[in-house]
């Protein structure tokens, strides 16, 4: 239950991404700068945080020891996750992007058999069924808007988000395997930010060539996104997944909490961007999302209780 609550809090901070990315798009800012500036801003902040803890040296050593997996999975987990996500804001409001991104709930479960070569694992079917309830709510929420958007706009919004939805859990889980508990959450985020820099540098060169430099409003808003989503939300979510990384059922539950981004993004757009109040149909969709999150929490709590009972029966003593 602790991991679920941390996941919901992460969703709140993550929702800032969808709101402000849409705000920057409406103001004429390029999606390229919305993506790249976030990670450029994150880097010095992370260096200060990890440097204050005197933990930078282990990160560098770990990256030098395994440069290829660090570069590859960091580019997937950060680059192929966030660049398509920001691109999608051109073709849909923040809440619609957040809603479609919830495909990551299913993606995380479908990726289970391919994430560990040493141990054969099955797709957590129970989590898939619960996630379908959440997705039903997500699609109900976006139905009215999607029905009024041209097909090409729908495709240019949905296809990048499918890539993003698979890249995020794949990169996150693969990096957990690479790190293998040897680095803490902030060290891992710092390492992934450093390793993904080549991707962001190349993208920023394209951004400068195609769109010129960003304006001051976009720089300020991207800085807020970097703090809220890049530092706070990412740290909370990574910490939640690390707590339950040995249990696929609970991992799916934590990843499902990110569906709360839809609700938070919608509320944020109404308050900050003066978006219209959603219809009764959208509220029904939110209800499905909340029910799905509650079910995931219950399943996670029951799974934890069963594990404790097994430990108690086997006579294994737990640390206090």
TrEMBL record:
Q: Which InterPro entries match?
A: EmrE (IPR032713)
Does the keyword Ribosomal protein belong to this entry?
A: no
Q: Which Pfam family is one of this chain's hits?
A: EmrE
- Lineage, top-rank taxon, reads Bacteria
Keyword annotations for this protein, in alphabetical order, are: Membrane, Transmembrane, Transmembrane helix
Transmembrane regions listed in the UniProt entry: 31-52, 64-83, 95-116, 123-143, 149-168, 189-207, 219-239, 260-277, 283-303
Name of this chain's protein? Multidrug resistance efflux transporter family protein
């Amino acid at each position: 239950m602790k991991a679920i609550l941390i996941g919901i809090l992460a969703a709140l901070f993550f929702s800032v991404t969808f709101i402000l990315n849409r705000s920057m798009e409406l103001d004429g800012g390029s999606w390229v700068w919305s993506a790249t500036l976030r990670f450029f801003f994150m880097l010095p902040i992370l260096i200060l945080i990890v440097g204050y803890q005197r933990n930078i040296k282990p990160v560098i050593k770990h990256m030098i020891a395994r440069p290829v997996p660090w570069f590859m999975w960091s580019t997937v987990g950060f680059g192929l996750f966030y660049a398509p996500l920001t691109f999608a804001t051109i073709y849909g409001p923040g809440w619609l992007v957040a809603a479609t991104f919830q495909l990551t709930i299913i993606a995380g479960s479908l990726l289970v058999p391919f994430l560990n070569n040493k141990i054969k694992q099955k797709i957590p079917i129970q989590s898939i069924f619960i996630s379908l309830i959440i997705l039903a709510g997500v699609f109900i929420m976006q139905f009215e808007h999607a029905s009024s958007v041209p097909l090409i706009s729908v495709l240019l919004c949905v296809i990048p988000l499918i890539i993003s939805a698979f890249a995020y859990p794949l990169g996150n889980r693969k990096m957990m395997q690479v790190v293998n508990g040897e680095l803490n959450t902030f060290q891992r985020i710092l390492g992934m930010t450093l390793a993904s820099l080549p991707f962001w540098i190349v993208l920023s060169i394209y951004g400068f060539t195609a769109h010129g430099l960003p304006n001051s409003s976009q720089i300020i808003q991207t800085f807020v996104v970097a703090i809220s989503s890049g530092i706070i939300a990412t740290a909370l979510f990574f910490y939640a997944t690390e707590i339950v990384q040995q249990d696929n059922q609970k991992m799916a539950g934590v990843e499902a909490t990110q569906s709360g981004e839809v609700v938070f993004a919608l509320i944020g757009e109404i308050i900050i961007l003066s978006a219209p109040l959603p219809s009764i149909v959208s509220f029904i969709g939110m209800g499905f999302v909340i029910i799905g999150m509650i079910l995931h929490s219950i399943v996670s709590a029951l799974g934890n209780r069963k594990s404790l009972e097994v430990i108690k029966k086997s006579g294994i003593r737990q640390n206090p």
